[in-house]
Design brief:
Layout: E1 4-5, H1 13-29, H2 33-37, H3 42-54, E2 59-63, E3 79-84, H4 87-99, E4 105-110, E5 123-129, H5 138-148, E6 149-159, H6 166-175, H7 179-182, E7 200-207, E8 213-219, H8 222-229
Parallel strand pairs: 1-4, 2-3, 2-5, 3-4, 5-6
Antiparallel strand pairs: 6-8, 7-8
Helix pairs in contact: 5-8
The structure holds S-adenosylmethionine.
Length: 231
Amino acid sequence: MSIRTDIPDRDHPRAVLDAEGVRDAYRRWAGVYDLVFGGVSAHGRRRAVEEVNRLPGTRVLEVGVGTGLALPRYRPEKRVVGIDLSRDMLEKAAARVREERLSQVVGLSEMNAEHMAFADDSFDIAVAMFTASVVPNAKVLFAEMSRVVRPGGHLLFVNHFAAEAGLRWWVERSMAPLSRLLGWHPDFALSDLLDPQAVRVEAMEPCQPAGIFTLVRVRNQPAAALALAAE
Ligand SMILES: C[S@@+](CC[C@H](N)C(=O)[O-])C[C@H]1O[C@@H](n2cnc3c(N)ncnc32)[C@H](O)[C@@H]1O
C-alpha cells in the first residue's frame, strides 16, 4: 500500500515545532517499537479494536496508526483509514498491510491529527491508541476527531493517564521534561483530553497490565468538543 502525504503547508508555529519532535522521536522508535512497546500495550489495543468491531458503522479512522499493530484485528467488513505524522512508522504499517493482505485497510496517510484533511462526518468511529499523550494539544485532537466523526458516532482512546496524587503522580511529574526524548508526555491526564462533565463518556475500562492503561469510549457530540477546544 502506498502512503499519501497530507500535511498542510502552513501550521501554527507550536504545532510545527512539536510535530518535528514527534517525527524525530518516532524515527528512532520505528525499528524497535513493536519489540519494546508491542507486548505491554497489546491488551489495551485488542480491547479497543474489539469495541470498534462491535460498534455500528464501517467507516473507521485510526489516528496515530503507528506501525499498524492493530490493523490485522479489524473485522473484514470495516473500512479502516490510518493516519500518522511519522513516515517511518507509516512505512512499517504499509508493509504490514501488504504482507498480511489486509483488505479492510483502505488508506494510510501522512497527516497531522490536529489538522485533518477529512470533511466533517467522514467516519462512524475514530480511535486513538496510545496517541493522545503524544500530540501537542490533546483537546484539539479530540475536537478534530469529533469533527470528522458523524454526530452519534464514537470516539475511542486507550492511554495511560497520569495519577492525580501520590508517588506515581510525583514520578510522572518528574519525568515530564523527558517528553521530547520519550516521544510522549508522562504527566498526561484525562482532563488534558476531555472534560467528563461536558462530553458523554459511555465507558472507562482499565486495561492490563495492572490497569496502567484505560480504554475510554465517548459518544460523539461535535458541539461539546468544539466548545472544550476553544477554552
Ligand atoms: C505511541 S505511538 C502509538 C502507535 C499505535 N497507535 C499503537 O497502538 O501502537 C504514537 C503514534 O502517534 C503518532 N502521532 C503523534 N502525534 C501525531 C499527530 N499530531 N498526528 C498524527 N499522528 C501522530 C506518532 O507518530 C506515533 O506513531
